[in-house]
Write a structure and sequence with these properties.
This protein is of the alpha/beta class and about 280 residues long. It has a single domain, classed as P-loop containing nucleotide triphosphate hydrolases (Rossmann fold), CATH 3.40.50. It contains twelve helices and five strands. The protein has a five-stranded parallel sheet, sandwiched between helices. Helix 4 links the parallel strand 2 and strand 3. Helix 2 packs parallel to helix 11 and helix 3 packs across helix 11. The longest helix has 25 residues. The radius of gyration is 22 Å and the shape is globular. The structure holds adenosine monophosphate (AMP) and magnesium ion.
Length: about 280
């Protein structure tokens, strides 16, 4: 598992060629069944670590999810939340900007959703759309979006330095064939039809442009303080396992501790015994 992290993380400045990465990669487990015990223990560990974060209220965690349509962003969120207390988590989805949002700088709508101390924030899409969809569909000229990589790095640095935020960014990478297979499932399974968007097939035509935009994003915005991880995501179980592994390692590195009680425990114990004696007497 240790090597896994090294394989998935994008070193700052590295020129990742996605065609050299196998989206069907699934580590040393052969099947979901075989990975089940590991998946469960990751979830339990994540639950404990998030409990610590919530109690300590010194650090926060921002998880950014990006990927192609049907890449599994929703699935990852569901998985992560099975290992966390929702009271300490916040999920934000970023859709097409409203006219008000468009009238501001692109980070304006993002900052209010950054996590407060003790909290885990998950972004389903993010400020990265402003160098992805905006670039691919020419919603802004290159002179505008090309400046955003530095702006994003500075913004993320600010969250790290000012608010002890750990930032983990996951690019969920599926193959073009797997996307089509998932579109078919959406068509065939009545329970999934609501997910179908007319834009799905239109966006698929821009696959190569998106890959190029993702590659530049990975090269320019994977930093020491906010690294990108490329997650092979054709196998949903491996995707979930890899993401929870990365999250646990990052949370462990924070060396969090339960805070000391704010009350005098000896005093409270005395009060407890008094109350217990009174309850027995009555
Ligand atoms: P979904 O995540 O499937 O609900 O779709 C949300 C849509 O909003 C996607 O097509 C995104 O590309 C689009 N979107 C998100 N952020 C932006 C943005 N900053 N500019 C333009 N479109 C965006
Ligand atoms: Mg969609």
């Amino acid at each position: 598992m240790q090597n896994l992290l090294k394989n998935l993380v994008v070193r700052p400045g590295a020129r990742i060629k996605l065609r050299n990465i196998d989206p069907g990669y699934h580590g040393h487990h052969e099947s979901h069944q075989e990975a089940m015990a590991d998946i469960q223990s990751h979830i339990q560990k994540m639950d404990k670590l998030q409990y610590l974060m919530y109690a300590e209220r010194k650090h926060s965690l921002l998880i950014v999810l990006q990927g192609l349509d049907a890449g599994g962003k929703d699935g990852v969120i569901r998985h992560i939340l099975t290992g966390m207390n929702p009271a300490g988590c916040r999920v934000t989805g970023f859709k097409q900007p409203t006219p008000e949002e468009l009238a501001h700088d692109f980070l304006w709508r993002v900052h209010p959703h950054a996590p407060e101390k003790g909290e885990v924030a998950i972004f389903n899409r993010s400020h990265y759309e402003d160098v992805l969809v905006v670039r691919v569909h020419k919603l802004a000229p290159p002179a505008v979006w090309s400046k955003r990589y530095d702006l994003i790095n500075n913004f993320e640095k600010q969250l790290v330095v000012e608010n002890n935020t750990a930032i983990l960014k996951f690019f969920l990478y599926i193959s073009k064939e797997e996307q089509l297979a998932r579109f078919k499932q959406r068509l065939d399974d009545p329970a999934r039809r609501w997910k179908i968007s007319a834009a799905d097939y239109k966006e698929r035509k821009y696959w190569d442009d998106y890959i190029e935009a993702f590659e530049e994003m990975l090269r320019k915005t994977s930093t020491k303080h906010a690294p990108w991880y490329v997650i092979p995501s054709n196998h949903k179980w491996f995707r979930d396992l890899a993401v929870s592994h990365v999250i646990n390692r990052a949370l462990e590195d924070l060396n969090m501790k339960l805070p000391k009680p704010t009350v005098n425990i000896a005093d409270i114990r005395r009060q407890y015994h008094q109350a217990e004696a009174m309850a027995k007497a009555s």
